[in-house]
Amino acid sequence: MQALQENPRPVGSEKLSGQERYMIRQDRAKEDGASASFGLVGGLALLVMLGLNLRPLIAAISPLQGAIRADTGMSFQAIGLLTTLPFMCMGLVALMSARLAARLGEGRGVSLGLMLILFGCLLRIIDPGATTLLATALIGGVGIAIIQTLLPGRIKRDFPRRVPLAMGIYSAALMSGGGLAAWLSPRITAQTDSWPLGVGLWFIPALIALTGWLWKVAQPRGSRSPVPANRLWRFPRAWVLALYFGIINAGYSSVIAWLPAYYQQLGWNTSNSGLLLAWMTIFQVAAALTMPTLAQRQRGMDRRVLLGVSLLAQLIGYLGLILLPGPGALIWVALAGFGLGACFGLGLILALDHHPEPHVAGQLAAFMQGIGFMINAMSPWVNGALREATGDFVAVWIMLALGAFAMMMLTLVFRPSQYERLWSSQA
To answer: Taking burial as the number of CB atoms within 10 A of a residue's CB, which of 68, 112, 129, 412 is the most buried?
Structure first.
C-alpha cells in the first residue's frame, strides 16, 4: 500500500515524464541501509568524518595571516595562493576523476587523500616557512581534491533515495570543519604562542578520520565509469553547470581568505575577526542541512527556487559588507554564509539530478567540480590583486555581488523536464 502511495502511476504509463521515470528508477535502487559498504548510520557518520577534514587546511590560514605575513614576509597575493592552490588542485584532480577511480578505487583513493592532508598539516608544524606553506597548500589540496572527487558518485550510489539529505550532511560537515578551524586556530596560537601549531594541529582529525575509514571501508578495486571522460568536454550543459558551480561558490574561497583581513583593516582584532568566520559557519551549516532537506522533500527535481533564494542571500550579504560593514557585520556575514552554505550542496545535487545512473552523474559532478573549483581558485588570487591595487577590500565584495546576481539569472535555465532530452541529444 505504501509503495502504491509513493508511485501512484504504473511504471509503464505513457504519461510518465522523464523526471518521474527517474524517480521510479531511484525507488527501485537498493535501500541505503543494505549498502555493501555503508549502513545508513555508518555511512552518514563517515561522511561527517570526511567532510570535517576538507577545509581546516585552508580556513586556518585566514585569521592568522597577520602573524604569518610578519614572520614569513609573504605579500597579500602570496597569502592568497594558500587558498588558491588547494582550490586549483580540486579542479585539476576532479578532471582526472575517471582515471583516478579506475586506478585507485574509492577505498584507497580516500585513504590517500586523508594521508596527504595529514602530511601537509604536519609539515606546517615542522617547517613553517613561506615555501613550505605553499608546498603544503599543494599537498593538502591534492588530498582534499581526491576525496571531494570520489564522494559524490559514492553518495549517489549508496544513498539513492536520500541523495539531497546525504549531500546536505556532507556539505554541513565540510563547512563545519572550516568554521571550527577559523575559530580554534587563533586560540591555539594564543595559548601556545605558535601560529604553526595553530595551522598544523589539524593533522589530528585527519588521523582520526583515516583510522575510521580504514576500519569501516574496504574496497581494493575501483570501478570503471561507462561514460568516457572526454565526452563531457563536448556536452554544453556540463560547461554551464561548471561555470555556475564555480561562480556560486567563488565567494567561499574569497570570504575565508579576506573577511578577517577586511575587518582587521576596520580595526577589529585577530581573534574577533576570525570569530566572524566561525559565525558565518553556523549559518553555512544551517543552510547546508536545511536547503537540501527541503530539496529531499520536493516532489520533483526543480531546485531553481531554492538556488534563487540562496543566491539572493549571498547578494544581500555582499551588498551589506559594502554599504554598512560595521553596524550590520553579523547580519551580512550570516546572510552570505547561509547563501554559500546552501549553494555548495544544492549545486552538487543539481549535477546529480541530471542523470539517474550513479557513474554518469558522478562523472558529470566531477567535471563540474573540476572547472568550478578552478574558478574558485582564481577568486582569492584575483581579489588579492584587487586589494593590492585599490588598497581596500570593497572591490572584492562588488565582484562577488555581481557574480551572485548573474547566477540568479542563469538559474532559470535549469528545468528538470529538459534533463533527459539534453543527455539523450549528446549520446
So the answer is: 68
Which three-class secondary structure string do you get for the chain? CHHHHHCCCCCCCCCCCHHHHHHHHHHHCCCHHHCCCCCHHHHHHHHHHHHHCCCHHHHCCHHHHHHHHHHHCCCHHHHHHHHHHHHHHHHHHHHCHHHHHHHHHHHHHHHHHHHHHHHHHHHHHHCCCHHHHHHHHHHHHHHHHHHHHHHHHHHHHHCCCCHHHHHHHHHHHHHHHHHHHHHHHHHHHHHHCCHHHHHHCCHHHHHHHHHHHHHHCCCCCCCCCCCCHHHHHHCHHHHHHHHHHHHHHHHHHHHHHHHHHHHHHCCCCHHHHHHHHHHHHHHHHHHHHHHHHHHHHCCCCCCHHHHHHHHHHHHHHHHHHHHCCCCCHHHHHHHHHHHHHHHHHHHHHHHHHCCCCHHHHHHHHHHHHHHHHHHHHHHHHHHHHHHHHHCCCHHHHHHHHHHHHHHHHHHHHCCHHHHHHHHHHHC
Q: Per residue in 269-299, pLDDT tens?
A: 877 887 888 899 899 999 999 999 898 888 8
Distance CA 21, CA 33 (A): 23
Burial status of residue 272 (CB atoms within 10 A of its CB: 0-12, 13-18, 19 or more): middle
Q: Which residue has the cell 583515516?
A: 210
pLDDT tens-place string over residues 301-316: 899 999 999 999 999 9
Contact 239, 299 (CB under 8 A): no
pLDDT tens, 67-114? 999 999 998 878 888 988 898 888 888 888 777 777 877 788 889 999
Given a contact cutoff of 8 angstroms between Cβ atoms, the answer to whether 359 and 153 are in contact is yes
What is each CA distance from 353 to 26, 55, 113, 358, in whole angstroms?
Answer: 11, 26, 26, 10
CATH architecture of 38-421: Up-down Bundle (1.20)
Hunting for cell 584532480 — which residue is that?
93
Task: Please write the tens of the pLDDT for every residue from 315-355.
Answer: 999 999 999 998 889 999 999 999 999 999 999 999 988 88
Residue 262 and residue 384: Cα distance in Å, rounded?
11
Count of other CB atoms within 10 angstroms of residue 4: 8
Higher pLDDT, 151 or 304: 304
Q: How far apart are CA 355 and CA 148, in angstroms?
A: 19
